[in-house]
Amino acid sequence: MDGEGGGTTGGWCCPPIHLMRSEPMQLVQLIIPIESAHLTLSYVGELGLLQFKDLNIDKSPFQRTYAYQIKRCGEMARKLRFFRDQMWKAGIVPSVMPLMDEVNFDDLEAKLGELEGELIEVNANSEKLQRTYNELLEYKLVLQKAGEFFYSAQSDATAQQREIEARSVGDESIDRPLLLEQEISTDLSKQIKLGFVSGLVPKEKSMAFERILFRATRGNMFLKQSLVEDPVTDPVSGEKGLKNVFVVFYSGERAKTKILKICEAFGANRYPFTEDVSKQRQMIEEVEGRISELKTTIDIGVLHRDKLLKNIGYQYESWNHLVKKEKSVYHTLNMLSLDVSKKCLVAEGWSPKFAASQIQDALERAALDSNSQVGSIFQVLQSKELPPTYFRTNKFSSAFQEIVDAYGVAKYQEANPAVYTIVTFPFLFAVMFGDWGHGICLLLATMYFIIRERKLSSQKLGDITEMTFGGRYVIMMMALFSIYTGLVYNEFFSVPFELFGQSAYACRDPSCRDASTNGLIKVRRTYPFGVDPVWHGSRSELPFLNSLKMKMSILLGVAQMNLGILMSFFNGLFFRNGLNIWYQFIPQLIFLNSLFGYLSLLIIVKWCTGSKADLYHVMIYMFLSPTDDLGENQLIVGQKTLQLVLILLALISVPWMLFPKPFLMKRQHEARHQGQSYALLNSSDVDSAEIEADHSSHGDEEFDFSEVFVHQLIHTIEFVLESVSNTASYLRLWALSLAHSELSSVFYEKVLLLAWGYNNIIILIIGGIVFICATIGVLLVMETLSAFLHALRLHWVEFQNKFYEADGYKFAPFSFATVEEED
Fold first, then answer.
1. Given this model, what pLDDT does residue 523 score?
2. DSSP characters over 304-336
3. Is pLDDT at 659 greater than 90 in this prediction?
4. pTM for this one?
5. Across the strands, what pairs with 32?
């Protein structure tokens, strides 16, 4: 591949920074004896510098060599998850303790099986005891409440009997029931005996329970209910809830059958009950005794279970680490090709060139430690396959690299935008967020994460907190640049300060009566740094800042787009792609600067000369009437001629981008195929075989001229249109900066100063709280997020599309560090 050749000779075009180009990669082959394969993969996994290729892609997971070992690891991982869930339920946190002694994998498997069996048995006994305990508690409630029912009924019956006897002694009364003597004299053996069912029913079902009972028995029942004040744990479901103790009186077996079915349907737990008061007391005493015994037994069981879980928790992390490590090793071994005759495994993979010696050392150590008779073989393979992209980053640069990778991973050894993003991203953010008071607040917030990063990195944070912590250095750079641009704008929570000297302007007289009408006069030298504080609050503030920030946005945008086009030149030089340099880089540079580079020049000249020329008029009539006299809008000598030349260059650059490249690519394709056909006639069999392989690799994709031309046409039209739209897109710097400044000014003047004017401490405190909440919620959170997203858009669309292809894939090495990060 051209990129590999360019990596050695073309490196002079870029600064020697690791992030500028991805690491040079090589395809390596390892031939590993089977007896040392496991240990070799373990050592390579600790290095984390080799990405293995799957050589068994045609086999299903169940057909691979180490499928049984992976199944074992999966079963052990399931047991460990079971232990973790049990510890979580018991409120036990696994201790982070290093494993002192090396644990054998087979021994660990047997130990986990024993612990799981013991824990399951303990849980089963505990659940059985707990269910019995809950049943006894319910039974006790039924005995107490139903006993009260029967006791009150007997008391009422006794009182009624006494009343009847008292009446019978007296004279005959007209109110006396006619059948009273017959009722009293009825034989007890002929009286209808009522049965009853007692138990508990959930309170929310009690009304429906009563209604269904009434309908099923056609009213031939009597239901008595009483609410239990405290929640009751259901023995079956284990859920707590309010319940009613009920007693249903009925007559006949059919009614009994219906009532039992209704109780079952409503989840009502039934318990036996006797009418004998003495037996009731005896049963209550027995139930209370059994409850006390069960409580003691359950407590002992819980202590035993907690002790068992604590012992597991001491070594849980080390066991989990070992199982994950073993599973990843066997999963990687399944990607290797098994050579049965030679009793060895063949591996292929990508590694950085600098890691070759480290990988070889790991192979030698594995061969020695496993007492293998034969050592592993390490050799470099030649390949035309596109290597993965690998950048060596640290905790500072990794967040900026992630911002770029979110758009797309760089092609192998393509120029990396992250190098410039480290500076340009926080700077463009700060242009929109410029306020050194808000910048200090951001800096203090991010310094908290930076100072405590060692502690926080080992903790599990929430999604938003973890995202903020990961980008702590990005936020730090954003805050520092915001302080700088805030000093340039001279804004501290929208309040200007004379930090670098006195203002250059003053009133015409001591009373300043005509300051708002006639304006101020310049009495000193120009303010040395940033915006003069006298502009803030004046009638000319908005027009002045509008003009300043709008022109500054165009200058920054054109500069960054030129940088993007310049990076395409470095890419073409590095990959030795002359077509892209001559027919993409040069015409794009000419077109962009003929229009907007010229506009940037006029802005700078106007600032330096103080001219009152209308730049809108100049740019519009540059195209509509290029031969007309400029008059008062002329800024430089020969401007009219210069404009005609620039228009001509811009017009020439469009066909320059469109036509030559497709035809030259077609000619290169034909020349390459003609050269190969000649080589086939005059070469040996070996050479011809190599050329045929090379020919087949190029011939897989046939050259379609129409497709290439249409692609180039789209690319040309896209660049011409984007030159205008991208430049206009940078005006968001002006818009968001103005919005941030005006919002800050509104909160300061309409909240804080307004509250201060009332001379009331309560109103002042309320105003201060509102001001702080508005500043944090709107300016430091919402505005930060808004400026961040807009800066992200400017980098992804306006900057990176000038040179960044982003069609690569990330280097994903086999590493135990990444295995540990996975949950």
1. 82
2. HHHHHHHHHHHHHHHHHHHHHHHHHHHHHHTTS
3. yes
4. 0.79
5. 345
Residue with tokens 């195209």: 623
Exposure string of 427-463, with b = 16+ CB inside 10 Å and e = fewer, is: bbbbbbbbbbbbbbbbbebbeebeeeeeebeeeeeee
- Cα 190 to Cα 13, 179, 186, 507, 711, distances in angstroms: 117, 16, 7, 120, 107
* Alpha-carbon gap, residue 199 to 194, rounded angstroms: 17
Could you please report the per-residue DSSP string of 14-28?
A: S-S-TTTSPPPEEEE
Q: Give the rounded distance of the alpha carbon of 296 from its chain centre.
A: 48
Nearest Cα neighbor of 624 from 613, 636, 632, 616 is 616
Q: What is the distance between the alpha carbons of residues 738 and 552, in angstroms, rounded to a whole number?
A: 13
Distance CA 551, CA 545 (A): 10
Sequence length of the chain is 823
Burial class (CB in 10 A: 0-12, 13-18, 19+), 508: middle
Q: For 346, phi and psi rounded to 5 degrees? A: -110, 125
Strand, coil or helix: 690: helix
Residue spans of beta strands (DSSP E) within 162-234:
195-202, 221-227, 232-233
What value, to the nearest 5°, has the Cα angle with vertex 789 and ends 787 and 793?
Answer: 115
CB 700 within 8 A of CB 399: no
Taking residue 159's Cβ as centre, other Cβ atoms within 10 Å add up to 10
Is the confidence at residue 71, as pLDDT, over 90?
A: yes
CA distance 438 to 307: 53
Q: What is the structure's pLDDT at 15?
A: 40
Closest to 594 (Cα-Cα) out of 532, 512, 653, 526: 653
Axis crossing angle, helix 277-333 with helix 105-169, rounded to the nearest 10:
160
Residues 6+ apart with CB under 8 A from 427: 481, 485
Distance CA 332, CA 41 (A): 8
Local structure of residue 389 (DSSP, 8 states)? B
